[in-house]
Amino acid sequence: MRRLGMFMSVSLDGFFAGPNGDMSWAHRRDPEWDEYVNGNVKGESELMFGRVTYDMMVSYWPTPMAAKNSPAVAARMNTAPKIVFSRTLRESQWENTKVLNGDLVEEVARLKGQPGPGITILGSGSIVRQLTDARLIDEYQIVICPLVLGQGKSLFGGLKQCANLELTSSRAFSNGNVVLCYQAAV
Q: What range does the domain containing 22 cover?
């Protein structure tokens, strides 16, 4: 069975986006962080997005600016196999992207049962929340950014039941970010 993971930056108070969807605060670059991110993109996961995150990603990663600012990440984002879940989008012009319009939980359970590399959800708070409730996420990689937003979009707000997790690793960075890795407790 394929493993499903997620990678998300959140504020210290648990918001993945500000009140108006702003996520610019989550990009705290420095050489140490850039090295970590560049190492992370060397994996072979299939990437998964919701439509809102997909729209942000496709508006940036295929551009010359992305290739100049983050060449390794841009190359991986553009060539990696990608899945976008959407009720409205029917096709994608972004290289290697499949659009799925079916029931999220059913489709992800089906995808996990197929052969292939792991799947990583990038961003997409609503998808993370729904798949956490469905107990389909195996690994959580959460980047805690050193700021308090006070309000915004909560990563786990609205969960229907408690999700027990076990810490598998943690790493603090000089820019103040802390990466916490958890696996779903059995």
A: 4-184
